[in-house]
Amino acid sequence: MRQAETARKTNETNISLTLEIDGEGKADIQTDVPFMTHMLDLFTKHGHFNLTVDAKGDTDVDDHHTTEDIGIVLGQMFKEALGDKKGIKRYGSSFVPMDETLAQVVVDLSNRPHLEMRAAFPSQKVGTFDTELVHEFLWKFALEARINLHVIVHYGTNTHHMIEAIFKAMARALDEATTIDPRVKGIPSTKGML
Length: 194
Known about the structure:
The chain has 194 residues and is of the alpha+beta class. 35% of the residues lie in helices and 31% in strands.
């Protein structure tokens, strides 16, 4: 079973997280950042993962540390749960529309972390959430999961819709990339390792 769990406590945040890659879309997300709670909930649903997150942080300062640290811990657990990556498809991509918005996410579970993001959010905030934290979360997730992550919002005018479409597309792309393909024998790389 491809799953991992951890607890991470710093002077800024306290996070417990359990991830099951081959799940049913079951989420139990409790964070001090309501918008991230919403994004993680739909990420779980659309990726068919099972995810439990309990995250508390110094949100009296701002949402940065909590959002960043959730990305770090989720990335670490994603990498751990994938194990040796034998038999996976490795690559995944998804287009997701949300009303006027169209987002595209492409991933390679390559062990070469990179984030390429093309998204111009028209608003700096969604509610109280700073939209610049989306990049921070995605970069930390990609870095710790050691994946190549490309995010493109082709168009859109509503910042909430744009971010939501990104998280849904990322979930669907990761679901595809982590799928076990019976045609893949061993590691999906000519190098013999990822």
